[in-house]
Amino acid sequence: MERPLTERIRPGETNWLADYQKAGGYEGLKAALKMTPREVQEVVKQSNLRGRGGAGFPTGLKWSFVPLGDDAPRPKYLIANGDEMEPGTFKDRLLLEGDPHQLIEGMIISAYAIQAEVGYIFLRWAYKKAEHVINKALAEAYQAGLLGKNILGSGFNFDLYLHTSAGRYICGEETALINSLEGKRANPRAKPPFPQTSGLFGKPSIVNNIETLCNVPHILHHGPDWYHSISHSVDGGTKIFGVSGKVKNPGLWELPLGVTLREVLEEKAGGMREGLKFKGLLPGGASTDFLTEQHLDIKLDYKGVEQAGSRLGTGTMIVLDDQTCVVGMVHNLEQFFAQESCGWCTPCRDGLPWTRNILWTIENGQGKMEDLEILEGMTKTLAPGNTFCALAPGAMEPLQSALKYFREDFERHIKEKRCPWRS
Amino acid sequence: MVTINIDGKNYQVEPKNNLLQTVLSLGLDLPYFCWHPAMGSVGSCRQCAVKKYADENDQKGRIVMACMEPVVDGMRISLNDPEVKKFRENIIELLMTNHPHDCPVCDEGGECHLQDMTLMSGHNYRRFEFNKRTHNNQYLGPFINHEMNRCIACYRCVRFYREYAGGRDFNVFASRNRVFFGRYEDGVLESEFSGNLVEICPTGVFTDKTYKKHYTRKWDLTTAPSICHNCSLGCNIIAGERYGAIRRIASRYNGKVNGYFICDRGRFGYEYVNSDQRIKEPLRRGQASGQLEPVDVSTAFEFVKNIVSKKGKILGIGSPKASVESNFALQKFVGKENFFAGVSGPEHRLTLKAMDIMQNGPSNVPSLKETEKADVVLVLGEDVTNTAPMLALSLRQASRVKPMELPIKMNIPTWHELAAMELIQDERGPFFVLTPSETKLDDVATATYRNAPDNIARMGFAIAHEIDHNAPAVEDLTEEEKKLAKQIADELVAAKKPLIVSGTSLLNEKILEAAANIGRAIDKKEKIANLFFVLPEANSFGLAMLEDKALDQALQAAENNKYDAVVILENDLYRRLPASEADRLLNSAGKVVALHYLQNQTTEKADLVIPVGPFTESDGTLINNEGRAQRFFQVFYPQETIKESWRWLAGFMEDNGLVGEDELVNLDDLINAVVSDYPAISAIKEAAPGSQFRINGQKIPRASHRFSGRTSINAMCRSANQNHRKMQILPCPLPWKATMDRCRRPPCRVSGTLAGIRYRLLISFKLKLAADCMAVIPAYVCLNRAWKMNLIILKKCRPCSKHKKTTGWPFRSICFTAATNSAVLRPALKN
Ligand SMILES: Cc1cc2nc3c(=O)[nH]c(=O)nc-3n(C[C@H](O)[C@H](O)[C@H](O)COP(=O)(O)O)c2cc1C
Ligand code: SF4
Ligand code: SF4
Ligand code: SF4
Ligand code: FES
Question: Which of A83, A171, A389 to mutate to test the pocket of ligand 2 (most atoms within 8 A of CB)?
Fold first, then answer.
C-alpha cells in the first residue's frame, strides 16, 4: 500500500531539504516547470484531487477559476491553510512538522499552476514546533534557489512567507483567513465573489488545505493514473485518517480513499478499549454528523460518507463510547463553537450560546421537553445558507444527528433530572 | 425593466437594486437591519430572508437573504412562505435574547426600527430563559449617549463611522456574542458626523443626549420640516418641540441635498433656541435709566411710528442668516436705496462673484448629492470639513467613484458593499486638496498642496493653463508645483465627471477666479466641469439676490446721509465689522432698532429691541450655496410677543400705511411680494406647498396620532395664564396644524414602500407617527441659475388615496415624487 504523504515521516523527526531530496523530493516541481501552467492544472484535474480541508472541492477545478495571462490582476496569491483548529483534527500538524518541504514543493507547483507570485502559510497559533520547522525549511528552500526569483532557472518567481495566526477557529474559514491576513477582523466574506477572483488584497487568490497541497508534488511526479491507482475510490489518492476517543490505539494513518470505516476503526485504531462499547462517531471533525454502528461498513470517500448522512470533512474522527454522555459531549462541542463564532451574523452569534446554555441545563438535570424543540428549531434556523458562513451549520451537524440517533439520552436527562452517566 | 414574481404576483421592476430594496420599493413589507440604502448590503443580520425558487416546478425553494440577491428577470420568490416567515421570526427572537426590552425608558422608543421590525416579524413570546449578556457603557462626549446592552450587532454604526464617514476613533471590538461597538476607551467622539449614529443605529444604543436631558417621548414631539441654518449647504432637518422648547434636530431625507445624514453642527447646534439669553419681549431704552426695559408691543409700534411719521430716513441692514422674506420685508420697509446686506464688503462681493461664476460660467453647478458622483475631485482652498461639513462627507464618497469601476467591470453590483470593498481595498480615486493647512480629507487625497491662499490661486491658474494653453500661464512655479499642476490637469481632463470645489472662506477672489478658469478650460475640451462653491452662510445666496450693497457702503451712507434710525435684522454688527467701525455706524445712524432672538453686542447698543423667532419659531425661505430655495417651517408657537421678523416688519409697514391693510399678512403674501419685485427668484414660491395645501381636505398634522397629555398641558397653561402655550387648534396660516384635533385619522403615512427614504420613517405599525409624513414633503425647489431661466416644475403632491393596503391602513404615503425629491427638473442644466 502506498503512502506518498507520510512514508518518509518518522515520529518526532523532521525531514530537512537533503533528506527530502534524497527521497525523490522536488522531482514533481521539475516536472511541473517543464509544463505550462494550464497543463499543470490539467494534470491535477485528471487526478481528481479533492480538497482535504473539509469541503472536498475539486482542486484542479478551483484553480481553473483564477485568471491567467498578461492582463490578470497582480500579484496573485496562494495560501496554505494550516489553521487546523477543528476539534479532533491533527493531520496537518503531522505533515507540517514531519515533512515541511513536501508542503513547500506543493506550494511552488500550485503557485506555478495559477501563476501566483506570493504565497503565505497560515499557521495555527498553537503549532509552535511547526512554526520553527517551517521557518527553517523556508530558509533552506530560499538558499537552494527553490524559492525567490527565477526558480530552478525557469524564470518563475515565487516568494513564500509564514504567518502565524492569533488563534481563532474562524481563521480557518478561507475568507476569514484572508481578512485576517490583511490585518482585519477575521469575519468571513461574502461569496461570490470567490477568492479565486477577488481574494487577498482584492487580488485573485487560492486557499488550499495543507494536506491538499502536499498531494500535489506526487501527482506531478508520478502522474494522475498512478494517483488513481493508489485509491479505492473515484476520488484520487490517499487520505490521512485519524481516530481519537477511547479506542485502543488512537492515531493517524494514511490510507487509500475508499477504505471502510470498520477497517480504520477496528484494524488501525484497534477497536474500543476494554469494557467500552462503540456508540457513534463524528467522521470528519467536530462539525460533521454522527455515524453509528449501522454505518461501519461504508466506504470512506466523499460520496460514501455523504450517503450515510454525514461528511468526510477532515477525515479525522472522534469516537463516542457507551460510557460517555452524549449530551455532555455535544455541550462541549457547542461551547467551542459558541466561543469561536466571529459574531458577524445573528443566527450563529446569538443562536449558539443559547444552544450551549440549553445543553448545559439538560446535562445538569434542569432541562425541559420544550428545550428539545428549541434545539431542533435551532438546527433549522442555523441550516446551510441561513448563516453567513459554514461555521454555524457545521456546529449544528453533531447536534442534529445526536438528536436523531440519541434522542433517548436527551430525554432521560430531562426525565431523571440528572445526567445518567454521572454518579 | 424585468419581471419578477412575488408570491404569485408579477411585478415590473428595474434590476438595478438588490432584491430587498426592490421589494420595499414595491410597497411590500420585509424586515431588515444591516442593509441601509446609503451603505449597501453586507448580509450580516439575516433578517431579510425570502424564499427563492429555482424555476416554475420548484416547490421547496431555498432561503436567501434578499439584500444579497440581485434582481434577475423571471425570478420567483415568496415573502409569505411559512418556513421563511418562521425563520424571520426566529431571527428576531435571537436578536432579542440579549436585548433589555427597556422600551419604556429608552429614548429610541417610538421610532425604533427594532420595535417596528419585531412587530412586523411577529415574534411575541420570549423563550430564552438565561441571563442576558451585559456590557459596560462608555462616555462618548456631550452629545451621544451609549447603552450597549440594547445592541443587536447589526454593524451599521461601525460601517457608517469608519467606512462611510472616515472616522478612526470608533470600532467593533471582541467577537462572538460579546461584540462591542464603541471607542477603545471613554472619550469624546471625534467625527463631525457622529450624531448620525443616533439615526443609523436601529435600536437605542446611541441616543441624542441633548434630547435625553429632558423628559420627552418621540411621539409627543411637535415637529416641522426645517432647514439647517448653520452653513450654506442647507441640509434638510426635522425640528421637534415639547413644552415650548426644542428637543431635538433630526435629519430629513433629501435626495438632492443631504440624503440621509446631517453633520453634528446641524444636529446639536440648536440649543441657543432654548437659551436664557433669548429676547422674549420688546425692550426699550429707558429715558431715565438708560437701560433696556421690557415694554409692550404697542410701545414698540409707537416707537417705530414716531420715526416713520416724521418722514424719518431709515437705514436697513439685512442678514445672511435671516430668510429671504425677512430681508425683503426690511428692504421694502426702508426702501431699496437704504437697504444694505449685513455682511462685510469683501465677503459680500466674493459671494456675488461666486454667484456670477455659477450663473455665467460654462460649468455645471451640481447638487450636493451629485458631488458624490464625481470621479475626480479638486478642492481649491476650502477646508470643507469646517466650512460645509456635509460636503466633506459627500466628497469622501466621491473618492470611491473611480475605484468602483473595478467591481462594476467584474459584475459585482455596487450595492454589494462587502464584495466591492474587498475588491477595491484602500484604493481611492484622483483627489487633490489644495489648502493652506491640513484638512480632514487629506487621508483620501492623492496629493495635497499646502501654501498661502494666493499661491493656491496660482496653482489653480496653472492647472487651467495646463488644460487649455490659451488660459493665462503662471510664472515662477517650482518643478514640483508644475508636476502637480500637470497631474491634476491630466486627471481632470480624463475624468468623466470632474469636480472643482472652492469657496469664499479664504476671502480670496483669485481662488474663485482660478476655479472658474479651470471650469472654462475644461469646457474648451468639450467637457463639462462641475463647480461647487461653498458660500459663507445659510442665506448668503438669498441675501445677495436681493442686495449688492454691503456694510462698508452702509457705513459710508450712514456717515454721509442723515439717517434717523437704523434697523438691524437678526445680526450682530460687531461680528461683521471691526468694533470701531460698528461703533461708528451705530453712532451715526440715529436710533438703533435691532430685531433679534438673542442678546448680543448690537442689541445691547439698541434703543429698541424687537423679539423675533429663530428658525424654529418662524417660517421662511433660504437659498443655499447652489441656488436651491428651501422653505423652513415654524415648529411651535412661542409667546405672543415673539414673531417672525417679516411679520413684525410687515406690521410696521401696515401700521404706518406703507402697505395696504391685509396686504402682507402671511407668508404666502410675503412670497408673492418677493416674486413680483424679484422675478429672478420667483421660484421660491414653488419651494413648498402654500398655506392652502391640503391632503384629503386636511391640513397636515404636526403632532403624532399618539400625542399625549394635551388636556393636562392645556389645563396647566390655563392655570399659569400661559394661553400662548395652549395647544393650538385654531387654523394657522400654513399647511400644517399643530395637533391631531379634528383629524379623522392621520391623512397619510410614510410606508415601507419608500425604500430609498429615511429608514426610521418606515412602517411603524403601532406607533404611527403622523407627523412623519409631512417630514418628507420636500421644502425645496431648485433655483440653480433660476434668475436666467424659467425652470421650476414641481410635481404636485399626489393626494394619497385609493390604494388600500392590506395592512388596514387606507392611505399610502403622500407622494412618492415628493418624498424622493426627484421630481424637480433643472432643464437648462447640462448633464
Ligand atoms: C469554520 C471553518 C473552519 C475551517 N477551518 C479550516 C482549517 O482549519 N483548515 C482548512 O484547511 N480548512 C478549513 N476550513 C475550510 C476552508 O474554508 C477551505 O474550504 C479550505 O481551506 C479549502 O482548502 P481545500 O480546497 O484544499 O480543502 C474551514 C471552514 C470553516 C467554515
Ligand atoms: S456563521 Fe456567521 S457569526 Fe458564525 S462564524 Fe460564520 S459569519 Fe461569523
Ligand atoms: S450599536 Fe446600534 S448600529 Fe451599532 S451594531 Fe449595535 S445595534 Fe447596530
Ligand atoms: S453641513 Fe451645513 S447645512 Fe448641513 S447640517 Fe451641517 S451645518 Fe447644517
Ligand atoms: S438586511 Fe439582509 S441580511 Fe441584514
Answer: A389
The shortest C-alpha distance from B11 to chain A (Å) reads 26
Determine whether the shortest distance from the Cβ of B201 to ligand 3 is under 6 A: yes
What's the rounded mean pLDDT across residues B577-601? 96
Residue spans per domain, chain B: 2-96, 106-125+132-213, 283-343+542-710+730-829, 349-535
HSE, side-chain direction, 13 A CA sphere, residue B342 = 30
Ligand 4 near B233 CB (within 6 A): yes
The torsion angle over the Cα atoms of residues A254, A257, A260 and A263, rounded to 10 degrees, is -20
Phi-psi region of A12 (alpha: psi -120 to 50; beta: other; left: phi over 0): left
| Cβ atoms of A409 and A374 closer than 8 Å | no
- Whose atoms come closest to the Cα of A172: which ligand? 1
Going by pLDDT thresholds of 50, 70 and 90, the confidence category of residue B788 is: very low
- CB of B157 closer than 8 Å to CB of B201: yes
Give pLDDT, residue A308.
97
Angle formed by the axes of helices B345-360 and B551-560, to 10°? 130
Which stretches of chain A score pLDDT less than 70? none
Chain A hits for B90, CB-CB cut-off 8 Å, are 347, 377, 381
Which amino acid is residue B34, in one-letter code? C
Half-sphere exposure of B172 toward its Cβ, with a 13 Å CA cutoff? 25
In the reported structure, the alpha carbon of residue B217 is separated from the centroid of ligand 5 by a whole-number distance in angstroms of 29
Interval B479-493: pLDDT, tens:
999 999 999 999 999
Q: Which pLDDT value is given to residue B110?
A: 76
Per-residue pLDDT at B391: 98
Q: Residue A346 Cα, ligand 2 centroid: separation in angstroms? A: 8
List residues in chain B touching A: CB distance below 8 A.
42-47, 49, 62-64, 68, 87, 90-91, 94-95, 97-98, 127-128, 130, 133, 152-153, 155, 172, 174-179, 410, 412, 416, 418-419, 422-425, 427
Render pLDDT for B710-740 as a digit per residue (tens, 0 to 9): 555 555 555 555 444 444 333 344 555 544 4
Residue B496 CB: number of other CB atoms within 10 A?
Answer: 13
The DSSP letter of residue B727 is P
ipTM of the complex: 0.95
3.40.50.2300, 3.30.70.20, 3.50.50.60, 3.40.640.10: which CATH number matches B106-125+132-213? 3.30.70.20
Report the CATH number of the B349-535 domain.
3.40.228.10
Is there a contact between B175 and A347 if contact means CB atoms under 8 Å apart?
A: no
Domain boundaries, chain A: 17-229, 238-321, 326-416
pTM for this entry: 0.91
What's the pLDDT score for residue B275? 94
**Phi, psi values for residue A316, rounded to 5°:** -115, 115
Q: What percent of chain B has pLDDT over 90?
A: 68
For a ligand 2 pocket test, name from A177, A391, A397 the mutation site with the most ligand atoms within 8 angstroms of its C-beta. A391
The shortest CB-CB distance from A385 to any of B42, B63, B133 is to: B63
What's the confidence (pLDDT) of residue B694?
A: 61
**Same fold: A238-321 with A326-416:** no
d(CA B691, CA B723): 24
Which option is the CATH number for A326-416: 2.40.30.10, 1.20.1440.230, 3.40.50.300, 1.20.1250.20?
Answer: 1.20.1440.230
Is the CB of residue B228 below 6 angstroms from any atom belonging to ligand 4?
yes
* B389 Cβ inside 6 Å of ligand 4: yes
A238-321: which CATH architecture? Roll (3.10)
Top-level class of domain B283-343+542-710+730-829: alpha beta
B153 CA: nearest ligand 3 atom = 5
pLDDT for position B256 = 84
Q: pLDDT of B153-181, one tens digit each?
A: 999 999 999 999 999 999 999 999 999 99
pLDDT tens string B235-275: 998 888 888 899 999 988 777 899 889 999 999 999 999 99
